[in-house]
Amino acid sequence: MLFRHETSLSKMKGMEEEVLAKFQIIKEQHDAEVVHLTEALKEKNRECKRLRSSFDTLKELNEYLKKQLNEVNDENRKMEIQAKRVQARLDNLQRKYEFMTIQRLKGNSHAAHEIKSLKQEKVPVSKTCKHSTMTSTLRRLGEDIFKGVVTKAIQDNSSEHSMENKPKTAAFFRSSNLPLRFLSTLIVLKTVTQADYLAQAFDSLCLDLKTDEGKVLFLEYQAVPVILNHLRISSKGLLSNVIDSLLQMTVESKSLQPFLEACSNNLFFRTCSVLLRTPKLDLQILEKLSIILQKLSKIKSNKKFFELFTIHLMLQEIQRTTHPEHAFLCINLNSTLFNLGLTKYNSLASNGSH
């Protein structure tokens, strides 16, 4: 009887130890979960603070841009008023000059002809002033977008925001937000003329176009005309970057066909035609351009553009004079001419265009 009692006690002790061990494991798991959730909560709080800070910055930036826009509109109105005054004064002086000329030319058989020519020489001062003012304003706006805009500090007495009460630079061109950065890059390319700014803008554009989202934004913002404005020999230092940005859009993706359709117009082919007429065009530029033209030649309706701007004739001449060792260029030229129905075979064209 005593033995059975001891056995029962021993079993109960073993069960107690097992229960305590399981309880300890559950307690450790619970503590670990509490720590994990605490960290997650802290991270959420930090994210909320960052979002609130970003929202405040964007709000201030919006107010700044509104103010700047109002100032530009006011300046434009003042310039219009000033231009009208100048035009009125010019018209008055013109009338006085005509009257004096008429008095001087009385009795001259050529007077009527001279008076008529005088009336045709009035200068459209207002249009010139408006265009100059707008160009200057857009250039300043583009430079602000490139450099960023310093916003005022947020007035907050709480200790947790004490580090956030410093002036901030609102990033546009250098923003981590892709749509904002992409649009800012296009504005810089559209408005700025400084070569170093443009070079950095094209570098940023080429990097963004390596992503599918960047390609979609390129089409959404209708960027082709902006890029074509720099696809000219006068932009020699930028020409390679300009071609590279277009070349990124020819990589196989969902955006390829819409991009080719966006290039299927007079503006694109006219620009290419002018570039191809450049004497001794750089071989790498020519090779990259041949890739784009080869893909465009696959669209049958584009044949009329090749013929309208005599690009097919220039490609035939380039093919005739290109050394055989430049196999990549020869293959692309041959493939393009084949797609246009100007050659009988298409040797390895598909390999050469990728």
TrEMBL record:
UniProt domain Coiled-coil-domain-containing protein 138 coiled-coil: residue ranges: 47-104
Gene3D superfamilies xrefs: 1.20.5.340
Coiled coil: 27-103
InterPro entries, per the entry: CCDC138, CCDC138_C, CCDC138_CC
Superkingdom of source: Eukaryota
The entry's keywords: Coiled coil
Protein name per its UniProtKB record: Coiled-coil domain containing 138
Species whose genome carries this gene: Phyllostomus discolor (pale spear-nosed bat)
